[in-house]
Amino acid sequence: MSDVAEHEGEQDTRSAEERLRDRRDAAYRHARVLSRPGFGDSVRARLAWLQEAAPEVYDLDERADMYGDRIVEALEERVAGLLGQEAAAFFPTGTMAQQVALRCWAGRTGTPTVALHGLSHPEVHERDAFSLVSGLRPLRLTSESRLPSAAEVRDFEEPFGTLMLELPLRDAGFLLPTWEELTELVGAAREREAVVHFDGARLWESTEHFGRPLEEIAGLADTVYVSFYKSLDGFGGAALAGPRALVEEAKAWRHRYGGMIFQQFPTVLSALIGLDRELPRLPEYVRHARVVAAALRDGFAAAGVPWARIHPEVPHIHQFQLWLPYDAPVLAETAVRQAEETGTFLLPAGWQPGGPGLAFTEVTVRSAGLEWTADDVKEAAADFAARLVGGGGR
Question: N or C, which terminus of the chain has less Cβ within 10 Å?
Answer without folding.
Answer: N
